[in-house]
Q: What sequence folds into this?
């Protein structure tokens, strides 16, 4: 156990790395995901087809492959802003289809009469989306969205294998350095992950209950 | 109409730019001229049968890990669901704590844990971590299925003299399994994707095979091997997803039940932790006040 307390500054720094990966990737994934979701439900077929293809392709690609591409192959194409930005890019790309699916399921949960009514009073697609549909969809979108962010928290561990300093990388280094206290170190690392995922899970459960009553 | 044309034009422009960038020649920092990505010199390696045999072996390794982990995950899921729906708190509470712990940890961390603590070798580390993690999720899905069954099923089982455990095993569990089958198969798709994490602990699954081939044959083939590996992964996942979708459209049982279960496991989110509504923690019989 003393191995964990000796290395606490290192673990905290790694935790900071994980949190910054999480923050930046979630913002990027939100933006990209909402964009793709909007394209998916748009009345223009080319946008719909593109968004569907994008979603299906990225959902069925393992995260390791996406990060492998970003961290190892993009530098060959002379695109190298640093390993941390590349990891953020990879995580954003991977998480965006899940955000898009969550948003789309929320939008589909809004009664179709709302869209029909808004179109019949003359609002354009963009107006009806932003003024009528999205505000109602947000309530149903939030619990799956929190699930997506919980998954993203756990997925940042994969970035640790691609030259980013975060909890998994720190855990691997420490476990190799202190072979006698492997269990303690790995439990310490797991504790930091649980520190984020368990409260988020409880929050999602509470919101789910609050929203379900109103359905 | 106009947005259709504009959208199509924008997307075509984006794709064309992508293809042209990939196909153009590039100059390395040392000044050498390298051919574009679609140049035949980058793809001639695939005339070699040994390359395809190695790739096939990598695919088989991936499938081997996924299949064994899937079977173990199902067994562990059944055990977890029994533990979660047990009458005795002494069984239920530790199971819940254990489940929340396992679902909150990244799979990769679990693989590393098993690898370093039990020295099992990369294959069993990957299989164990995948089985335990997905078993926890499948256990949650089964629990949601069992608790959504009409109370009459359990009451009838108890009334004809079966023990509570037998009722659960012979009557409730088969129905729950059949109802939750689409969700469970969807979780198995995620399991197949997660076998790629074994790349990081060093197991020679498909991605590691591709990387080894690239190291052996040279940098020139990096993109080619990556594309082939990606194509194989996509083919495997699409096939399994198609099976899951066929099952979902043909399964009997309520859409409501599956919606609840999907919410319980966070299906859209590529597996995650979600705390269940507190009411679901208590066994069905305790929920009604006595003397109702």
A:
């Amino acid at each position: 156990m003393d191995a964990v307390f000796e290395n606490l500054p290192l673990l905290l720094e790694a935790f900071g790395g994980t949190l910054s990966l999480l923050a930046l990737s979630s913002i990027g994934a939100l933006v990209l995901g909402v964009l793709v979701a909007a394209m998916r439900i748009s009345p223009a077929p080319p946008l719909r087809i593109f968004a569907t293809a994008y979603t299906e392709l990225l959902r069925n690609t393992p995260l390791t492959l996406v990060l492998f591409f970003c961290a190892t192959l993009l530098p060959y194409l002379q695109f190298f802003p640093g390993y941390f930005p590349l990891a953020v890019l990879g995580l954003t790309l991977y998480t965006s289809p899940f955000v898009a699916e969550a948003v789309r399921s929320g939008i589909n949960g809004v009664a179709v009469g709302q869209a029909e009514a808004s179109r019949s009073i003359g609002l354009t697609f963009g107006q009806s989306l932003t003024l009528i549909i999205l505000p109602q969809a947000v309530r149903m979108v939030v619990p799956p969205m929190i699930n997506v962010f919980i998954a993203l928290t756990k997925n940042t561990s994969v970035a640790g294998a691609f030259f980013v300093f975060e909890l998994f990388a720190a855990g691997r280094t420490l476990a190799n350095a202190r072979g006698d206290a492997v269990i303690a170190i790995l439990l310490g690392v797991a504790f930091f992950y649980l520190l984020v995922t368990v409260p988020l899970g409880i929050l999602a459960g509470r919101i789910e209950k609050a929203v379900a009553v109103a359905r | 109409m106009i947005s259709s044309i504009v959208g199509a034009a924008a997307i075509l422009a984006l794709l064309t730019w992508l293809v042209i960038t990939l196909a153009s020649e590039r100059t390395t920092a040392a000044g050498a001229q390298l051919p574009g990505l679609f140049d035949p010199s980058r793809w001639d390696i695939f005339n070699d049968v040994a390359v395809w045999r190695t790739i096939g072996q990598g695919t088989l390794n991936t499938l081997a890990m996924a299949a064994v982990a899937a079977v173990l995950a199902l067994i562990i899921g059944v055990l977890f669901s029994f533990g979660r729906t047990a009458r005795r708190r002494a069984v239920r509470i530790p199971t819940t704590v254990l489940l929340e712990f396992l679902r909150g940890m990244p799979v990769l961390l679990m693989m590393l844990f098993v690898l370093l603590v039990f020295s099992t070798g990369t294959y069993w580390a990957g299989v164990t971590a995948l089985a335990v993690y997905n078993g926890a999720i499948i256990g949650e899905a089964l629990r949601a299925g069992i608790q959504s069954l009409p109370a009459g099923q359990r009451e009838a089982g108890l009334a004809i003299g079966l023990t509570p455990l037998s009722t659960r095993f012979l009557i409730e569990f088969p129905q729950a399994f059949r109802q939750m089958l689409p969700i469970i198969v969807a979780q198995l798709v995620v399991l197949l994707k997660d076998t790629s994490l074994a790349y990081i602990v060093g197991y020679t699954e498909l991605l590691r095979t591709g990387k080894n081939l690239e190291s052996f044959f040279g940098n020139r083939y990096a993109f080619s091997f990556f594309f082939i590996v990606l194509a194989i992964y996509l083919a495997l996942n699409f096939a399994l997803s198609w099976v899951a979708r066929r099952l979902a459209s043909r399964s009997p049982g309520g859409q409501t039940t599956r919606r609840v279960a999907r919410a319980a496991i966070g299906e859209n989110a590529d597996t995650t932790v979600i705390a269940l509504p507190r009411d679901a923690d208590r066994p069905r019989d305790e929920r009604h006040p006595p003397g109702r």
Notes: The mean pLDDT of chain A is 88.
